[in-house]
Design a protein that fits this description.
By secondary structure, the protein is an alpha/beta fold. It folds into two domains: about 240 residues, P-loop containing nucleotide triphosphate hydrolases (Rossmann fold, 3-Layer(aba) Sandwich), CATH 3.40.50.300; about 60 residues, Histone, subunit A, CATH 1.10.20.140. Helices cover about 55% and strands about 10% of the residues. The protein has a six-stranded parallel beta sheet, sandwiched between helices.
């Protein structure tokens, strides 16, 4: 790949999917999804996948790639994303990467360190400890073993805490000392990033409205189908991380009213958006575009095109 891969980032419900579709449509191009939940089949409404009409007009990559009972590591996703990008370049097709999964964005721009493979036994033991004693026990252990990594990981992020402890146990070295390439942009796989930013109150309003639209569109029925599927195929830990599904499953089990589930989904999505923005602020060399509350996808796409051209 010679030309940088254009990448459009932004918080959930920030309008980037519509803008990406408009840009790809204009250039007869394709879209590479940078989203850890849209890659799962059968998760549709709740992860805001492109609708059938959009998929018929523009080719999407890494959407509906895995079954919801399958796991997907960052390394596996990155390898496939790189393959897709290089194949598009070889076909001379415009490809736009678009999404908001911070760890995928970071890996795409900075790469991954060549750490040890997974140890299922070690992971299972750590996860059992978290189940019985709480994730806080593992986080305290990480703070003692690798305080630099602990500062960058949320105390509730079991997946990343387990990985950091796993790397330390397998190598005898803290993961923070081995991730020396992070923070430095890759030279072998250049990426040009543009981000969409908007007023926090406007973003929260969009999130709330989208949750209401998703529920009206049949999100609860989608969760019922997944619950039936789980009788034979339990969802993977990764798929279970999708915001909103846990609350709707709780409603279906009688633990929450539908209104309680609705409000919790909105609250957690607000929190998720804040975490995304916190991550994004750490990224260097991103051209940020402040978008208006009612600005059209067409207008925003014009501005993104201009930003990409300015950085060409």
């Amino acid at each position: 790949m010679n030309a940088p891969l254009p990448l459009l980032i932004g918080p959930t419900a920030g309008g980037k999917s519509a803008v990406a579709f408009e840009l790809a449509r204009r250039r007869d191009g394709e879209i590479l999804s940078v989203d850890s939940m849209k890659l799962y089949k059968r998760l549709e409404i709740g992860v805001a996948k492109p609708v059938a009409q959009e998929r018929a007009s523009v080719r999407y990559h890494l959407i509906d790639w895995k079954e919801p009972w399958e796991s997907c590591s960052v390394a596996e996703w990155l390898a496939e994303a790189e393959r897709v990008a290089r194949a598009a370049a070889a076909r001379n097709v415009f490809l736009l990467a678009e999404g908001g999964t911070a760890l995928y964005i970071k890996a795409l721009r900075e790469g991954l360190f060549p750490g040890p493979g997974r140890s299922p036994e070690l992971r299972a033991g750590l996860e059992r400890e978290a189940e019985t004693g709480g994730v806080g026990i593992l986080y305290e252990r990480l703070q003692a073993a690798d305080p630099a990594a602990a500062k960058k990981i949320l105390p509730s992020d079991l997946r990343r805490i387990v990985r950091a402890l796993e790397v330390h146990a397998l190598t005898g070295k803290p993961i923070s000392a081995q991730q020396v390439q992070w923070g430095k942009l890759r030279e072998d796989f250049p990426v040009r990033a543009v981000g969409l930013a908007l007023d926090r109150k406007v973003l929260y309003r969009r999130i709330d409205e989208r949750v209401d639209r998703m529920l009206a569109a049949g999100w609860l029925d989608e969760c019922r189908a997944l619950r039936e599927l789980e009788k034979d195929h339990p969802l993977s830990k990764e798929a279970r991380m999708a915001i909103g599904y846990r609350q709707l499953f709780a409603h279906l089990h009688g633990a929450l009213t539908l209104d309680e589930a609705r409000q919790r989904i909105k609250f957690e999505t607000h929190h998720f958006a804040r975490r995304q923005l916190s991550w994004f602020r750490r990224f260097t060399e991103v051209t940020w575009i402040e978008i208006g509350a009612d600005e059209s996808a067409t207008s925003i796409a014009d501005r993104v095109e201009a930003a990409l051209a300015l950085r060409a």
